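User: Batch of two.

Assistant: Item 1 of 2:
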Amino acid sequence: MSEPDEFALLKAWRAGDAKAGNELLRMQFGPLFRFFRTKVSEDLVGELIQQTLLQCVEKQEQFRGDAQFSTYVYAVARRVAIGHYRKRRHEEIDPGSMSIADLADSPSRLLIGAEQDRLLLAGLRSIPFDHQVLLELHYWEKLPGPALARVLELPEGTIRTRLRRAKELLRAAVERAATDHRMAPATLDDLAVWAESLRGHIGRERPPTS
């Protein structure tokens, strides 16, 4: 759905059209499923999606319309994920230094057959949370720099440097996890191909929305 349609739905929703709101939020279910599926156990994904969508409904007036609605949704989802781990661990969470491997009690199981995909997933979970979010939104959702800056609450000028650093960290993490060095990505372009493959696996796991 194009950007004008997205804003038309939002405008109708704010005017009281519940069907428009349901359609707008339905559009976000798949991306939110991918977002949370790599960060929490399978039984928590639905709960966190619901929390995110509920906050989007309750705080819809905070969305100023100066960015795509999906950018706003990802920003809410990031805060929901951080809040989940903060509550679970009863401590402050630093998303710039702590990884899912640090935070999660047990890894989230994904039905992945390819060794490269398993290595990439392990690598993503071992780098700082915000770096993981940055890479997933960059590779999977194709968010541009300004949108990434909004989601991560960073100055737009730092995104390119942060993205380069995140790729370096991920590549190093995958290389450490590989039992055979030949399995490690030869270039950053390889990481992009692997990322698309992993996205496909997660998409096939997605449950129906109805």
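Item 2 of 2:
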Amino acid sequence: MSDDRIEQLLTNGRVNTVLAWALCSLFAFTALEGVLTGDLLWSAFALFVGLSATLPAIARRNPRRMPPWEVVMLAGLPVLGRAVATLRMPSAVATYISIAALALLVAANLDLFTAVEMNVPFAVLFVVVTTLATAGIWAVVRWVVDLSFGTTLLLDPALTHDEIETGLMWEFVGAAVAGLVAGLVFEWYVRRRAAVDTRLERSEAG
């Protein structure tokens, strides 16, 4: 297994397959619940996470070609929080950890199914930049929804403009930290997988 290929994210372990598909089933159930209750924003997020996780298996027509269940779980952390603890809004930390993990899935899919090829350092940078960009897009989405429908996702009337801006800046800091941590964990994971595979190959050869 090459240390430079993001395809090392994929695994065909039976336990991993069962756990990853179980999580995706939970995402689908949560998305359906969101549609029925009118919470379309998080329903769409749950569907996107599930689709990103199952795309390799669907494209390869092999249900065992799934990302590690740990990465799938992190990517769906807000979804799991809503399903298990009935949280209406996840914390910013959980949200940006999930975005960072979701960026790992996107990086893997880009590497596998497009002409884009990434080595591990670039993938780490991709995760950090993607997480920051998503944080900015998420802030704009909340602002537009508040202006259009009178909600308080971002523009809370109980807070001053300075407090709203300060909170938003801290969200960006949290997104950057979450992206960096996820990228470093990803690098460690790939290198650990490569080391294990090398030992197995040597053992089999011996």
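The chain has a mean pLDDT of 75.
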